[in-house]
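User: hey, got a sec? need GNAT family N-acetyl transferase folded
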Amino acid sequence: MEHGRRFGAFEDEELAAQVMTYPLAVSLFGERYEMGGIAYVATYPEHRRGGLIRQLMTKSISAMRENGQIISYLHPFDVTFYRKFGYELAFKETRMELRLKQFMQKSTGVGKIKRISHSNADFELAKQIYASYAERHNGMLIRDDAWWARLARRGYVNEIALYLDENGEAQGYLSFAFKGVQMIVHELVGLTSVAETELWAFISSHDSMFEKVTIKNAGEVDELALSLANPTALRVTQELTFMVRIVDVKRFLERYPFPELEEPLYFKIKDETAPFNEGVYKVAKGIEKVSEAPRQEVVEANIGAFSQMLLGFARPELLRAQGKIKISKETAARLEAIIPHEIPRFYDNF
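Assistant: Yep! Here you go:
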């Protein structure tokens, strides 16, 4: 909150509503993108339905653009409410539960596990592992020291199992806690398959102490199932969590990893909350705003569906079938080949 930007709406010099933006950064396509994290959106009940939040959200998005934050995340209390401001779902949280008696992973005997906490000097190694992992996966928060301190205050990094390979190099970690007869894994991050195996073996070694383990932030379920000895013992629940919107369309397109295009692409964007984004964008060797586009080539989308699509959360063909975007089958096929297929990940909360 010390670093956030807060806008308030006042009536008779008394605060009636507010919106805060955290100055954060995320990893997208292997690069750092400045991100505005929307939080503390609130209105006193007696001031609701007066349009104050709309004014504050509009102001916040404009300020993000001026501040160089070209993308924004938020955790919605109501998805429909934030869709009005151009946000759309783009992340999911996966929680898994395993009965340890049903699941046993043997150690490879390579490397070793070291128990540490956030107060240990080796905690810096866990930070470095996370940073390398975040670079490889779209959507992940780039955590600075202040954010790690926030996680420590909230008890997420009190107990850590750090994996060191045969050369003594840190290649993975898991942060965990115990509650009753279960082990709770807050985060499992491995840079190699051996690191992941050894961390799972560490979890398995607690089978005489705890009946089950609950896990989140451990990658995609499909990837996980391939590495587990008995995936049928896995119980999975998923929840759609964070929403996203592109704040500055032109700057986002300028940084997007488009391949060399034989024919231009045209995007016609609708954005009521940020009118500066509206218009037709031609993507060729560069990005330019144009007055019109060939009808058969243009991709028409509101800012929410456009953001979902370019981050890879919702595929072009699915959005076309659902009527979320207007696009020809031929252009949809072109976009399917261009847009990364990795589903974005986000392991943090605010």
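Quick note: The longest helix spans residues 52-66. Let me know if you need anything else on GNAT family N-acetyl transferase.
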